[in-house]
């Protein structure tokens, strides 16, 4: 909740800062900037690059600030670490009361810790020592060393002077104490506002994981190998899908018999999400490479078939007529008119298919695989290696984005007339 | 010698609801080599159907078309076509578009190159040879379409409202170009148009068609095309006969439109 408020505050604050401050230095006088009607004119809405930069920086700052990153100067208050104490008052069965101090030592989980040395004190209640990890809590059987015990009817009546009973929570310095139903004490040091590394590790530990796994590997394969195998499956699966799907789509666009024969199959298979095929593919082909490639082939096949079919039906009839009137044969029409004319549609389909394949391969690897990006993050999550999981997600995102950019570049290069006809 | 003859063509489509449409009824016509004929008529008179039959894209239900003493059964390079929207191939440059026909015949650059360059010069696109067609304006695209058709050296050129999508100024220039090409190449040209003025300017013969069923209503032989070659077309339009013919044809088409409206109203009532 706090994070959301901070985020919204940065969003609004940056908006005013950029509008009031930076915009004065940006002298733009192109056509769009002179438009007075921009609200409702989609073409006049261009992304404000300042907003994009601030947006990305904000995410990293918030991430760092709320995980105690060394890279970020400002931090949200972290969990309490160090020594603290509180006093409990015990009442014996005979009504006598005595105070004892609990000396707590809160340490970072994973670091060496030694117990505090204390004097037991006098009276019927004796001082106690507890050691608690940050973000954890610790149950204290305070009467273990006291002269009166709960069995005999003794009970804690106050914490730091505040009267309490079973089920109550008392605030103490650097934490809270809960009186359990049975009357023992549960001390939880204050957690602060930072995330525990097991939920969200700081950015530097994610980055150091990249270096570590690139060199030493994880689950028998290096990072590069995991990513390579995922990409390899996608490319082979997509290539096979395109190799079968495009000719099939052309056939469906050019022949009524093919159209009639394959229409029910394609129309039925198209809405089946490829993920739903994973169990069947595992039964048929196991969890090895062939299973993955069959799955990705099926994921790409229908998309490519439909886009090739749409590409053929998108050929303006006048172009076909023109080609025939100029003396083209059927094969020449195919080669010089239908194929080039369908390329824009096929590229759109290929972009969609690559995206779907990339999503499908990761999902398939999550289910079962020996290597691959999806397998890496799935296994890491079982061992609560959240930094590997986050690293994997970021890399999967970067690769997916990279694939899309490459497809767009190829499209601009190969079909420059797209959208300009 | 290369006469295009249309013999008793009828065209009747069945509709899915069991009725049928008589698009053309008993159309007969003969065109000699080098004749320029424009076809005019209200929408639904079957002029585009007639052109599609001439091109070989549709088979008539009755009658036949013969060109050079052989029967027309499908599209062929001997009958070139110019479409309203150019129908150019965007993935080819201007020059590749123009040389499409010869290349499909398997000719080599050496055989067609000179002719193609000459045609590009005639239509005024010499400096745009290597441009992509989508970079050209509508008028220029239509000139590419004309050049592409001529490069194939067809016997007959069929034009389906070739200037319909152009603005008035470009249209006038293109009308001059069509007349020039007609005179220089001596091709037989059939041109469909919606514009009465264009039909008068670009028709040695002018065919007015009537709708429902599509049929020939009246044929004119006009001097304006001959007058317009190499002339300012606005001068031709000032000719007193031109104005008189325009009014006559306009009122003829108006009458047809009103008759249709009347018939529809009767049917509705």
UniProtKB/TrEMBL annotation, chain A:
Subcellular location per the Swiss-Prot or TrEMBL entry: Cell membrane
Coiled-coil spans in chain: none
SUPFAM superfamilies linked to this entry: MetI-like (SSF161098)
Membrane association type: Multi-pass membrane protein
Chief place of localization: membrane
Any single GO BP term: cellular response to sulfur starvation
Domain ABC transmembrane type-1 positions: 227-407
Pfam family, one: BPD_transp_1
Matches recorded under CDD domains: TM_PBP2
Keyword terms: Cell membrane, Membrane, Transmembrane, Transmembrane helix, Transport
GO CC annotation, single: plasma membrane
Transmembrane segments: 227-248, 268-287, 294-317, 346-367, 388-407
Domain of life assignment: Bacteria
Similarity remark: Belongs to the binding-protein-dependent transport system permease family.
Function noted in UniProt: Probably part of an ABC transporter complex. Probably responsible for the translocation of the substrate across the membrane.
Protein name as it appears in the record: Taurine transport system permease protein
Native species: Roseovarius marisflavi
UniProtKB/TrEMBL annotation, chain B:
UniProt-listed CDD domains: ABC_NrtD_SsuB_transporters
Signal peptide location: none
Transmembrane domains' residue ranges: none
Start and end residues of each ABC transporter domain: 4-236
Pfam families assigned: ABC_tran (PF00005)
Presence of keyword Membrane: yes
Keywords from the UniProt entry: ATP-binding, Cell inner membrane, Cell membrane, Membrane, Nucleotide-binding, Translocase, Transport
Molecular functions (GO terms): ATP binding; ATP hydrolysis activity
Family assignment from sequence similarity: Belongs to the ABC transporter superfamily.
Name of the protein: Taurine transport system ATP-binding protein
Organism: Roseovarius marisflavi
């Amino acid at each position: 909740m706090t994070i959301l408020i901070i985020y919204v505050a940065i969003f609004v604050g940056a908006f005013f800062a950029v509008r009031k401050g930076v915009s004065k230095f940006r002298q733009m006088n192109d056509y769009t900037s002179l438009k007075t009607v921009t609200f409702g004119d989609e073409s006049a809405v261009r992304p404000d690059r300042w907003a994009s930069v601030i947006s990305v920086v904000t995410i990293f700052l918030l991430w760092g600030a709320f995980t105690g990153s060394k890279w970020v100067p400002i931090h949200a208050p972290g969990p309490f670490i160090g020594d603290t104490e509180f006093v409990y008052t015990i009442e014996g069965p005979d009504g006598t009361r005595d105070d004892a101090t609990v000396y707590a030592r809160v340490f970072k989980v994973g670091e060496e810790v030694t117990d505090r040395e204390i004097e037991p004190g006098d009276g019927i209640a004796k001082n106690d020592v507890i050691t608690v990890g940050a973000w954890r809590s610790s149950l204290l059987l305070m009467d273990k060393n006291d002269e009166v015990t709960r069995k005999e009817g003794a009970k804690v009546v106050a914490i730091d002077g505040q009267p309490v009973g079973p089920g109550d929570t008392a605030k103490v310095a650097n934490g809270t104490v809960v009186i359990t139903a049975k009357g023992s004490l549960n001390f939880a040091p204050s957690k602060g506002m930072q995330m525990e590394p097991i939920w969200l590790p700081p950015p530097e530990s994610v980055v150091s994981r990249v270096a570590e796994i690139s060199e030493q590997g994880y689950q028998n394969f290096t990072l590069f190998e995991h990513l390579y195998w995922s990409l390899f499956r996608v490319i082979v699966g997509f290539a096979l899908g395109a190799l079968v799907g495009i000719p099939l789509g052309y056939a469906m666009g050019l022949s009524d018999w093919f159209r009639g024969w394959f229409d029910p199959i394609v129309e039925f298979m198209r809405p089946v999400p490829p993920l739903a095929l994973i169990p069947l593919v595992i039964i048929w082909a196991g969890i090895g490479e062939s299973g993955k490639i069959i799955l990705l082939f099926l994921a790409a096949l229908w998309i490519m078939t439909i886009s090739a079919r749409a590409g053929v039906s998108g050929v303006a009839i006048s172009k076909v007529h023109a080609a025939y009137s100029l003396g083209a044969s059927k094969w020449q029409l195919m080669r010089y008119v239908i194929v080039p004319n369908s390329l824009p549609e096929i590229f759109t389909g290929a972009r969609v298919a690559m995206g779907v394949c990339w999503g499908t391969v990761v999902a398939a690897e999550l289910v079962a695989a020996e290597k691959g990006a999806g397998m890496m993050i799935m296994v890491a999550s079982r061992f609560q290696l959240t930094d590997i999981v986050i690293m994997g997600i970021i890399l999967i995102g970067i690769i997916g984005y990279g694939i899309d950019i490459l497809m767009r570049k190829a499209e601009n290069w190969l079909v420059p007339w797209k959208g300009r006809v | 010698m290369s006469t295009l003859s249309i013999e008793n063509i009828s065209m009747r489509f069945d509709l899915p609801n069991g009725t049928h449409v008589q698009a053309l009824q008993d159309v007969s016509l003969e065109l000699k080599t080098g004749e320029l004929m424009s076809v005019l008529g209200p929408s639904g008179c079957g002029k585009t159907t007639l052109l599609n039959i001439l091109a070989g894209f549709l088979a008539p239900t009755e009658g036949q078309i013969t060109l050079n003493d052989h029967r027309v059964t499908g599209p062929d390079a001997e009958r070139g076509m110019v479409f309203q929207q150019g129908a150019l191939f965007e993935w080819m440059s201007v020059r590749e578009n123009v040389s499409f026909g010869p290349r499909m015949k398997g000719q080599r650059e050496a055989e067609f190159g000179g002719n193609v360059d000459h045609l590009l010069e005639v239509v005024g696109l010499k400096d745009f040879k290597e441009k992509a067609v989508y970079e050209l304006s509508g008028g220029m695209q239509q000139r590419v379409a004309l050049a592409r058709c001529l490069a194939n050296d067809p016997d007959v050129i069929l034009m389906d409202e070739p200037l319909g999508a152009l603005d008035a100024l470009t249209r006038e220039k293109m009308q001059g170009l069509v007349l020039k090409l007609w005179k220089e190449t001596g091709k037989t040209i059939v041109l469909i148009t919606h514009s009465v003025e264009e039909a008068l300017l670009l028709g040695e013969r002018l065919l007015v068609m009537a709708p429902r069923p599509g049929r020939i209503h009246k044929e004119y032989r006009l001097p304006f095309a001959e007058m317009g070659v190499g002339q300012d077309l606005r001068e031709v339009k000032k000719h007193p006969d031109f104005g008189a013919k325009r009014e006559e044809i306009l009122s003829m088409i108006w009458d047809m439109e009103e008759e249709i409206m009347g018939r529809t109203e009767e049917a509705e009532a």
